[in-house]
Design goal:
4 strands; single chain; two-stranded antiparallel sheet; mainly alpha
Length: 589
């Protein structure tokens, strides 16, 4: 009997040891699971960083390759231009120099004729070469050769040749002859397809290069062209669109950094940001174009110098054959300047499209002179004149822009708090809450707090330790011990059941206490997350109030901007520099 009791005692002890080891293993496994989860999170974070680094490296490699290809293309295109059109440069350098040599009389007719003949041989298709031969023949009174040279130059480029001789004759103060050449040029023009050299006409008007007679003829012709082209609604709409794009380019930068809470919670933020940026364009527009119109360009002391400047622009203009290569060269240079950003380079090249078009309509030339004078090679004086002449399109574009900016302000600005707006919300995937800032802030706060409370409670309850479920197994085991061992020895059965129940109960109790602590911690974290949400809501409401004040302050500038554009209509009726001097001289006489 004693031996049997001892054996039962040993078995009970073994069962107790087994339960203890089982408890220890459960704890060890729980720790290992937590460690594995931490390692998984760390690995996921490292993989995301590795992916970001790889994408950055790949993008850098692509842009570096773009730069290398562009540099190679620049060299190839430059060589091609030099090979095909290199002689044009020497002709261009000679033209104005020859006129200046006439002024001081330091170049003989023989040397001029020799240079001109050489240029004719070097550039068999270039209009400027026979024009220079005509000048040389004119200086030596060789009427027959002069007429032949003029005819050849006119055959190669009627537009540029007409302008060239009009300017040369005006430079020699032969105003009537200059106006005749100018009239010949204007009669032959199609206002819908003007050559690139027409920018020289605008420059001549701004400088008064053709005198009052030429200015009167130009004013009448250009007025007729403008009325003809403006009769087409599509043509007029294109000019308004050009000015609309200019105004849009002056929009203020995004204000997202100034309104971090509002931009984070409001779906209407893109509309709010766009409206505020657009309203900021009014002041930037005034600043830019007041500076343009207030600028003063000092006129040259002599008419000859002014005409020489204009001639430089005319003879320095690229020939139409060069334009495709010049455009490709400009694009590749922009790729290098933008560190391989092909899209930005293409956009900027397209923005300067007027620099590489063979023909443009008169309205587009005028807009280009106002918006991008460098693209067509005109001066600041011409830009001021063109801006004033475009006041109608400027006004229409600004009116439409203002209307659209104001219409873009949303009537109902809402706040949406989704499952990712705070760390606490991410823990249990808070369902989205939506409120309107048209309601009082107190109502929104109460609604948001109630939304948190409704979804927090079941989440926290779900973290409770399943005490009943955990007690089922130990109760069954204890009853099994009492049933199986009680048939042998009831005393040992109670002892074994007590030991097993005590150990297992301790494990369950520890789990229960851990569950209570987990609930308390979760409840505290979620309460803090709820407070963070309420703070975001209050901050977003305050930022929206500030946004409205900032928008009103920027939008009120629209009236001054409108007045400024309206004033442009009378800003270009004064005489050009040399026209004014002519009037003063006549009054003095």
């Amino acid at each position: 009997m004693v031996e049997r009791d001892f054996a039962l005692h040993q078995k009970v002890r073994e069962v107790g040891n087994l339960v203890t080891r089982l408890s220890e293993q459960v704890g060890a496994v729980s720790g290992q699971v937590s460690s594995v989860e931490n390692r998984q999170q760390q690995t996921s974070s490292e993989l995301q960083q590795l992916r970001a680094d790889f994408l950055e490296f790949a993008q850098h490699s692509v842009r570096l390759a773009n730069v290398q290809r562009a540099e190679t293309r620049i060299g190839v295109i430059q060589d091609e231009i030099d090979h095909a059109f290199g002689h044009y440069k020497s002709v261009r350098r000679t033209a104005v120099g020859m006129l200046q040599a006439f002024d001081v009389g330091i170049v003989s007719e023989e040397s001029i004729r020799l240079v001109s003949d050489q240029l004719m041989l070097q550039t068999p298709r270039y209009w400027l070469a026979p024009a220079l031969v005509a000048l040389a023949s004119w200086s030596s009174d060789d009427r027959h050769l002069c007429e032949r040279a003029v005819e050849e130059a006119f055959r190669r480029s009627p537009e540029r040749t007409s302008l060239f001789f009009a300017l040369v004759l005006r430079r020699q103060n032969r105003r009537q002859a200059a106006v005749r050449w100018l009239r010949h040029y204007l009669i032959a023009q199609d206002p819908a397809r003007l050559g690139r050299e027409f920018a020289v006409i605008l420059e001549s008007i701004a400088q008064g290069a053709f005198g009052p007679e030429g200015r009167a003829m130009l004013d009448a012709t250009l007025r007729e062209w403008r009325e003809t082209l403006s009769a087409d609604p599509d043509t007029r709409a294109r000019q308004v669109q050009r000015w609309r794009e200019e105004i849009e380019s002056l929009s203020a930068p995004s204000a997202k950094g100034r309104y971090p809470r509002l931009s984070a919670v409001s779906p209407q933020w893109p509309a709010l940001d766009g409206a505020l940026s657009g309203a900021g364009a009014h002041q930037r527009l005034i600043d830019k174009y007041q500076a343009v119109m207030a600028g003063e360009s000092e006129a040259p002391g002599r008419l000859e110098d002014a005409v020489d400047d204009i001639l430089d622009r005319l003879v320095g203009e690229y020939d139409n054959e060069e334009l495709p290569l010049r455009r490709e060269l400009a694009f590749n240079k922009k790729v290098v300047d933008r560190d391989g950003d092909v899209q930005t380079a293409r956009h900027e090249t397209d923005a300067d499209a007027s620099s590489y078009e063979e023909t443009l309509d008169y309205l587009t030339v005028q807009s280009a002179a106002a918006l991008n004078p460098a693209a067509i090679g005109t001066s600041a004086a011409t830009q001021r004149m063109a801006v004033a002449a475009c006041d109608e399109w400027f006004f229409q574009a600004h009116t439409g822009f203002t209307r659209d900016v104001r219409a873009a302000v949303p009537d109902d600005v809402r706040a949406v708090f989704g499952p990712a707006h705070t760390v606490g919300a991410q823990v249990f995937q808070l369902p989205p809450w939506e409120g309107s800032f048209t309601r009082p802030l107190q109502e929104n706060e109460a609604s948001l707090a109630g939304h948190w409370d409704r979804h927090m409670a079941p989440f926290v309850d779900g973290l409770a330790y399943p005490l009943v479920n955990k007690l089922v197994a130990p109760v069954i085991v204890v009853l099994g011990i009492l049933f199986l061992i009680g048939q042998i020895s009831l005393g040992f059965a109670f002892a074994a059941a007590a030991i097993v129940g005590a150990v297992w109960g301790l494990v369950v109790f520890q789990g229960y206490k851990a569950g209570q602590k987990l609930q308390a911690d979760a409840r505290g974290l979620l309460e803090q997350a709820k407070l963070e949400s309420l703070h975001q809501l209050r901050g977003a409401a305050a930022e929206l109030t500030d946004w409205y004040e900032t928008f009103r302050a920027a939008d009120v500038v629209e009236a001054r901007c409108r007045e400024f554009i309206t004033s442009l209509a009378t800003a270009h009726h004064g005489p050009s520099p040399f026209e004014g001097r002519t009037v003063l001289q006549e009054d003095h006489r």
